[in-house]
């Protein structure tokens, strides 16, 4: 869970997740939305993959990135349990 919160703490990575919410994208398509190098985008994707927030799939010569909704469901369940036990 620590990797998830670390990944979510960065605004660039949150923006990448917002983009992937709409549709699966390649690293090149993701990089078009940012004013930074492609290696920097790749590093952000590596962190998101390490936190299991994003999965990748090779299709032909391209690698497409998509959200791993299972992890988001786990986060939501944890948050509900946390707040339910805390009495908020």
From TrEMBL:
It comes from the Bacteria. Signal peptide: none annotated. The keyword DNA-binding applies. It holds the Pfam family HTH_5. It comes from Pullulanibacillus camelliae. The keyword Transcription regulation applies. Keywords: DNA-binding, Transcription, Transcription regulation. One of its GO terms (molecular function) is DNA binding. This is Transcriptional regulator. Residues 1-87 form the HTH arsR-type domain. SUPFAM superfamilies: Winged helix' DNA-binding domain.
């Amino acid at each position: 869970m620590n990797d998830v919160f670390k990944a979510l703490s960065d605004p660039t990575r949150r923006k990448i997740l917002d983009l992937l919410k709409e549709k699966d994208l390649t690293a090149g398509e993701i990089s078009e939305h940012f004013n930074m190098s492609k290696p920097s985008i790749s590093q952000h994707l590596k962190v998101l993959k390490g936190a299991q927030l994003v999965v990748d799939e090779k299709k032909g010569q391209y690698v497409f990135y998509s959200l791993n909704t299972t992890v988001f469901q786990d986060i939501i369940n944890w948050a509900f349990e946390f707040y339910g036990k805390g009495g908020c």
